[in-house]
Amino acid sequence: MSSSKRPRPAPEDLIEDAILDDILASSEDEIAAELRDGGSSPDEAVARARRAVADAEAECGRRRLAAAKRGVAAFRSSAPVVSLADVQRQRTSTTVAYVIVACSGRWRLVLGVAVSRATRRR
């Protein structure tokens, strides 16, 4: 017989799964009764849970914003790397110049102008 390749779950994971299964199998009335027995109102428990979710969403948003700011800073601080193939392609292709202005914190494209570059041959 060969052994299973999946690792065995830790005992604390099994206990956590059993608790979650018990909560999910309980009816709304049973949960409300347990909350009342514990000295808490069901409405207060719902309000606390909603606040916890809202706080978690706000924290995730702050972390995403901080990560995006770090990414922009890293992008702006690095020197652009231009290959010889890109330089040659730029000399022979059509270049589009854009005029962009900041409008109330958002970038907006105002004008796009196509400029054709002729190939120089010597």
Structural class: alpha+beta
Shape estimate: elongated
Taking all residues together, what is the mean pLDDT? 75
What is the count of helical runs?
4
Total beta-strand segments = 2
Helix content: 55-70%
Largest sheet: 2 strands, antiparallel
Q: How far do the termini sit from each other?
A: 77 Å
Beta-strand residue percentage:
15-25%
Q: Low-confidence segments, ≥5 residues, pLDDT <50?
A: 97-105, 107-122
Strand order, biggest sheet? 1-2
* SSE sequence, one letter per element: HHHHEE
C-alpha Rg (nearest Å) = 30 Å
Layout of helices and strands, plus pairs?
Elements: H1 11-25, H2 28-37, H3 42-77, H4 84-92, E1 94-103, E2 106-116
Antiparallel strand pairs: 1-2
